[in-house]
Amino acid sequence: LSVIDDLPLMAGLIEVKGSALVFSTPQGRIAEVSAKGRSGDAARPKQVVAFYARTLPQLGWKPAGAASWVREGERLGLAVLVKNGTLTAQFSLIPN
Description:
This protein is mainly β. The chain has 1 helix and 7 strands. Strands 1, 2, 3, 4, 5, 6 and 7 form a 7-stranded antiparallel beta sheet that branches. Strand 4 (62-63) and strand 5 (68-71) form a beta hairpin. It is globular.
């Protein structure tokens, strides 16, 4: 993902152009970005959350609640929704 460079993008998802926002604050960075894909067998909300639940700990992220992880003073959140057959994954990174 363009603004969270060490976050892998699940196969079947594509970053939404123009969705990326990033700010630097004295407490740390704030970033948001969305990715979309067709909702189907490989891209359902539960599968997306499960992919990140398996992948993020390998990158040093620790679970911190439902669809939320922490690492080195940052908190990563993931929200997944489906509308009209399109799955959208919204990633947000904030200081912890």
